[in-house]
Amino acid sequence: xxxxxxxxxGVAFATIGFLGVRGRLRRNRFxxxxxxxxxxxxxxxALANKIAGVPTATAGAIALAAAFAAAVNPALALVIGLVxxxxxxxxxxxxxxxxxxxxxxxxxxxAPAGCGxxxxxxxxxxVLTRA
Length: 131
Hints:
mainly alpha
């Protein structure tokens, strides 16, 4: 059972990492580096996940190797599984931190001038602002 779970985790991490490196991971609610900075726009999300992709794919390889090792050696399966699980989560988390920092380094888009982009049409956003 443990090798199967580790294998699924490994495939998930490897797939997310590969898609991130290739720039094919689209902004979503479930996968990739999802922080306020990375979800700002599609380009920032793609950059963050490209940076985090290699560590995430490596985490997947660690989990897959641990799954294989646990399946081959059932006597030490629990120890191997725990070490592999903790190792893969730590490496994937480190990749997430790197991706988040890369997203924070991207300057925020400029705020619209005037009334902040509202559809007021008359040059003012409120009756109270008119003289």
